Automatic annotation (TrEMBL):
Signal peptide: none annotated. GO terms for molecular function: metal ion binding. Residues 1-64 form the HMA domain. This is Copper chaperone CopZ. It holds the Pfam family HMA. PANTHER family: COPPER TRANSPORT PROTEIN ATOX1-RELATED, COPPER TRANSPORT PROTEIN ATX1. Keywords: Metal-binding.
Length: 65
């Protein structure tokens, strides 16, 4: 299952990697790809949307599912 969430605050490649790492740490996520230009992250797997948002928020960015 694929899910796209909106992520505000990414400004560089390091930011994208930080968001990807945070998302990949969520149970059920098999992969994540962040795109700062689109202000989105695409997540593969069966993770809960609230857990994805919380992980990105904890990493210092603003996310909405």
């Amino acid at each position: 299952m694929s899910r796209t969430i909106t992520v505000e605050g990414m400004s560089c490649e390091h930011c994208e990697q930080t968001v990807e790492d945070a998302l990949e740490g969520v149970d059920g996520v098999t992969s994540a790809e962040a795109d700062r230009d689109a202000k989105q992250a695409t997540v593969e797997g069966a993770a809960d949307a609230d857990a994805l948002v919380a992980a990105v928020d904890d990493a210092g960015y603003d996310a909405t599912a």
